[in-house]
Design brief:
five-stranded antiparallel sheet; alpha+beta; about 525 residues; globular; about 15% strand
C-alpha cells in the first residue's frame, strides 16, 4: 500500500458506526460503486467514504465525519424543499421486494445446480446481486434518514414539550410518535410461535410430557395438533433468522425454543429489536393523543409520519433480507464447493473475486482463506474501491485506531442525551466489540460506541447503558426502555476515557456520567 492512500485516509476524521456478524458477500458490494449508485438513485446522494474491517467473522464499519455531515445536510436541505421525499422514494418498496423475492425463489428452485457450468453460476451470482442490492440499500437509507432528520424532530420536541412543562418526557413522546402503526413480519412470526407455546401451556397432559424431557418425536405421538402448528410455523418462517449469516430454522430448533419458554416461564411478548417489531394498540392510541397535544405544523407532522415510515421499513427489511438470503443458500453452497470452501467461508469473499475463481476454475488457497478470515478491509474512497488483506489491512486498522484515540484530560464528568431514565452506580464493561460486551453481568454498566441487534443479549444483561453515538431511537435506547435500564447516548469520546472496571455514576435523569474511581 502506498503512503498516498494512507495520507488520504488521514485527511478524514473517522467515526465508528456499527459492528456485527455481517460478511462481505452479504453486503452486496460489487465493482463499479453499485451500492453508491443505487443509494443515489433512491435518495439523491450517498456516502462516498467508507471503511469496513472484517476480522474473525465480525464486520466493523467506519465512516468519515466530513462525508457523513455532508450527507446529513443534503437530506435536511432536501426535506425543507420536499417534505414528503422520504416516503415518496420508497413508495414502491413492497412491489419491488416482492418481485426480487419471486426471482430469487426461481434460483432456489433450480434442481440441477451441480450440473450447471461455471459460466452459468456466474450469471446466477450476478443476478442475485442485482436483487439483493435494492433491499440492503433501503435498509441503510432508512437508517440514514433517522440519523439525519431525527435531530430536527428532537429539537422541535424539546422546545414544544418545554412549553407544555413536559421537557423530561422528550424520549417517551418521540418513541411513541414514530412507532409504526402497522403489523410487522417479526410480530406475525412471534404470534405464530406463541400459539405453539400456548397450546403446550394450556394442555396439562402435553405440558407434563414436555416437562419430563420426552423427545420431540415422542411429543408429537401424544399430540398431533402440536406437530401441525410447528410444521405450519416452520414452513412460513424457516428463513426468519437467516440474515445475517445465521442458519435457517429447523423443526427441532423451533421445538427447543418452545421448551425454553416453558422451562423459564417466559412471557409471550415480543422482545423488541427495533421500533415496530411489536404491535401495541394502546401505544398507537397514545401516539394519536400526543400528536393532538403538541399540535405540530404541517411540516413537523410530515416529519413524524416520515420517520414512522422509516422505522417500519427497517423492521420489514430484516426479515425480507433473511428470506432473500435463504433462497440463495443452494447457489452459494454449490459455488463454495467448486472453490473448495464451505458456505460460510465463501461469504468472506466479494462477488467479483468469486467470479474470477469460477472463470479460472480455481480453488481458493488455504493460505488466502486464513488471511482473509484473520483481517481484511473493503474501502471506498475517491470514487474507487479497494480490497486489502494481511499487513495492508492491519495498516489501515492501525491508522484509524490511532486517529480515534483522544488526548485525555482530567475530565471526569460527561454529558449526553437521556435514552431511558434512572440512576445507577456500577463498574464499567467496555463493549466496543462483541467479545468485550460478553463480559457484562448484572450490576455492570455497559459502555458501547454504538450497538446493533447482535449486541441484544449483552444490552439486556446490563444494569446501565452508555453509548458514544446514537440518538433517541438508536438500538441501545430501544432495549433500555424495554427493560427500564438507565441509558445515556451521544456521550462524546466516552469509550476512550473509560476502561473495564472503572466505577461510574450514570445519572440518566440528568444525562450525566461521572467517573468515581478509575481502575
Amino acid at each position: 500500500m502506498n503512503q498516498k492512500l494512507i495520507k488520504r485516509i488521514n485527511d478524514y476524521t473517522w467515526m465508528y458506526t456499527w459492528s456485527g456478524n455481517f460478511p462481505l458477500l452479504d453486503c452486496a458490494y460489487d465493482k463499479g460503486l453499485k451500492f453508491q449508485k443505487e443509494h443515489t438513485r433512491i435518495s439523491g446522494d450517498s456516502l462516498r467514504v467508507i471503511i469496513n474491517l472484517f476480522e474473525n467473522g465480525i464486520q466493523t464499519c467506519y465512516q468519515a465525519v466530513e462525508d457523513r455531515d455532508r450527507l446529513d445536510q443534503f437530506y435536511r436541505n432536501r426535506f425543507e424543499v420536499e417534505p414528503g421525499f422520504m416516503i415518496d422514494v420508497v413508495k414502491d418498496y413492497r412491489k419491488r421486494v416482492n418481485f426480487d423475492l419471486k426471482e430469487l425463489r426461481k434460483i432456489w428452485a433450480i434442481k440441477n445446480l451441480d450440473k450447471l457450468s461455471n459460466k452459468k453460476l456466474i450469471e446466477l451470482l450476478n443476478k442475485v446481486g442485482r436483487h439483493l442490492i435494492y433491499n440492503l440499500t433501503v435498509d441503510i437509507y432508512d437508517w440514514y434518514m433517522e440519523i439525519a432528520l431525527m435531530p430536527v424532530l428532537e429539537s422541535y420536541m424539546k422546545r414544544r414539550l418545554g412549553e407544555l412543562g413536559k421537557a423530561e418526557l422528550v424520549t417517551e413522546y418521540i418513541n411513541t410518535l414514530i412507532t409504526p402503526h402497522q403489523v410487522s413480519i417479526i410480530y406475525k412470526e412471534r404470534q405464530s410461535f406463541f400459539n405453539i407455546v400456548k397450546l403446550v401451556r394450556d394442555n396439562k397432559a402435553l405440558l407434563e410430557v414436555v416437562q419430563k424431557g420426552i423427545s420431540y418425536d415422542g411429543v408429537i405421538k401424544e399430540n398431533k395438533e402440536i406437530k401441525k402448528l410447528i410444521d405450519k410455523h416452520f414452513k412460513g418462517y424457516v428463513w426468519i433468522n437467516v440474515y445475517a449469516n445465521n442458519p435457517p430454522s429447523t423443526v427441532l430448533s423451533i421445538w427447543n425454543e418452545v421448551i425454553d419458554y416453558i422451562k423459564n416461564d417466559t412471557p409471550l411478548t415480543v422482545k423488541a429489536k427495533r421500533l415496530g417489531d411489536d404491535y401495541d394498540v394502546s401505544l398507537i392510541e397514545r401516539s394519536k393523543v400526543f400528536l393532538e397535544e403538541i399540535g405540530p405544523s404541517k411540516e413537523v407532522k410530515n416529519l413524524i409520519m416520515s420517520l414512522r415510515r422509516m422505522a417500519f421499513l427497517r423492521t420489514e427489511d430484516y426479515p425480507v433480507m433473511g428470506e432473500s438470503a435463504y433462497y440463495i443458500i443452494p447457489l452459494y453452497t454449490e459455488i463454495a464447493k467448486r472453490l473448495g470452501l464451505t458456505y460460510y467461508e465463501l461469504k468472506e469473499f466479494l462477488p467479483w473475486e468469486i467470479a474470477d475463481y469460477l472463470k479460472e476454475n480455481k480453488k481458493v488457497k488455504e493460505k488466502d482463506l486464513k488471511e482473509r478470515l484473520k483481517l481484511s478491509c473493503f474501502m471506498t474512497i475517491d470514487n474507487k474501491e479497494y480490497v486489502f488483506v494481511g499487513k495492508d489491512a492491519q495498516k489501515i486498522k492501525d491508522t484509524i485506531q490511532t486517529q480515534l484515540e483522544v488526548e485525555k484530560t482530567n475530565k471526569d464528568i460527561f454529558e449526553g442525551a437521556t435514552g431511558s431514565v434512572g440512576k445507577i452506580t456500577g463498574k464499567v464493561v467496555i463493549g466496543t466489540s462483541l467479545e468485550g460486551a460478553s463480559k457484562v453481568k448484572k450490576g455492570d454498566i455497559l459502555v458501547v460506541a454504538s450497538a446493533s441487534n447482535v449486541f441484544d443479549i449483552y444490552l439486556r444483561k446490563a444494569s446501565g447503558i452508555i453509548a458514544e453515538f446514537g440518538g433517541l431511537t438508536s438500538h441501545p435506547v430501544i432495549v433500555a426502555r424495554e427493560f427500564k435500564t438507565p441509558c445515556i447516548v451521544g456521550v462524546k469520546n466516552i469509550t476512550q476515557y473509560l476502561k473495564d472496571g472503572d466505577l461510574v455514576e450514570l445519572d440518566a435523569d440528568k444525562g450525566v456520567v461521572k467517573i468515581l474511581k478509575n481502575q
